[in-house]
Amino acid sequence: MTDQSTRLLIHGASGRMGRALLRLAAQDPRLTVVAAVSARGEPIAEAGDCPVLPSSRMDQAPAYDVAIDFSLPEAFNGVLEQCLARRSALVSGTTGLADRQRAALDAAAARIPVLWAANFSLGVAVLAELVRQAAAALPGWDADVVEAHHVHKKDAPSGTALHLGAAVEAGRGRGPHYASLRAGDIVGEHTVQLSGPGERLELVHRATNRDIFARGALEAALRLAGRGPGRCDLGRLLLDREPA
Ligand code: NAD
């Protein structure tokens, strides 16, 4: 730990994303993970010397600047409450949140810095911008978002598919149709298909490694630490359109 390092709590630490976050944070001298939280607090190899807590004891975690949450909707309220109680920032990539959880996130932004994103990759930030432009240029064409993920993914359509659908809607005033595939160990694939008479345009993003999401979330945490309350937009942050 260095004096100026950003102190993190990783929530959902035993999961696929949580373990990637722990591994990559340990390699970054600007970051110190002070606690890892999972549902049951089971040992996690990637946590190293950092304490692992069950969610029922999250309030016992040492002080942290930012909580990074990649868990499940049923776990989300707990980490949001803790961040509010401690006035710490929250970076969350948990998908499948209910409307009232999204509203709670909006309300929390009046008191703490908050960044939620359906996808923390640079490629998807750029894709969403391209999709908005293409949909605006082709307003009469059919629009479909087709996504594929591993068999363990619980929500469908994926949060990223809905994010891309919002970009379609922003471009042409109407959302797309969605199709979801769950198979094998696919990390995440999204195709936005615009179909007109006699031709078809496909914009595709394929994630082959979860580290891209973890890196984006760690970068977001570094940028959020020390900010005042409010919502931060990942697209602007990753595309460097937001001041550091
Ligand atoms: P996972 O199932 O592998 O891990 C889930 C984690 O949540 C585990 O650590 C588990 O212990 C924890 N958890 C479950 N119930 C809990 C509870 N009640 N209290 C505290 N912790 C609890 O899932 P994953 O593949 O790591 O994905 C996690 C989330 O991140 C999902 O919502 C997924 O869709 C999302 N995700 C987002 C992005 C992005 O870029 N935004 C990328 C990948 C995954």
The level of helicity is 25-40%
> What is the residue-averaged pLDDT?
95
Shape: globular
Secondary structure class reads alpha/beta
What CATH calls the topology of the largest domain is: Rossmann fold
Over all CA atoms, what is the radius of gyration? 18 Å
- Total helical segments: 7
Provide an overview of this structure.
The strands form two sheets. This protein has a seven-stranded parallel sheet with strand order 3-2-1-4-5-6-11, sandwiched between helices. A four-stranded mixed sheet has the order 8-7-9-10, covered by helices on one side. The chain is globular, with a radius of gyration of 18 Å. The protein starts with 5 loop residues before the first strand and ends in a 6-residue tail after the last helix. The chain has helices at residues 16-26, 73-86, 99-108, 122-137, 159-172, 211-224, 234-238, and strands at 6-11, 31-38, 52-54, 66-69, 89-92, 113-116, 142-149, 177-182, 188-196, 199-207, 230-231. The protein has seven helices and eleven strands. With 244 residues, the chain is α/β, with parallel strands linked by helices. The protein has two domains: 6-116 and 211-239, NAD(P)-binding Rossmann-like Domain (Rossmann fold); 122-207, 2-Layer Sandwich (Dihydrodipicolinate Reductase, domain 2), CATH 3.30.360. Helices cover 34% and strands 26% of the residues. Helix 2 runs parallel beside helix 3.
Concise summary:
The protein has helices spanning 16-26, 73-86, 99-108, 122-137, 159-172, 211-224, 234-238, and strands spanning 6-11, 31-38, 52-54, 66-69, 89-92, 113-116, 142-149, 177-182, 188-196, 199-207, 230-231. It is an alpha/beta fold.
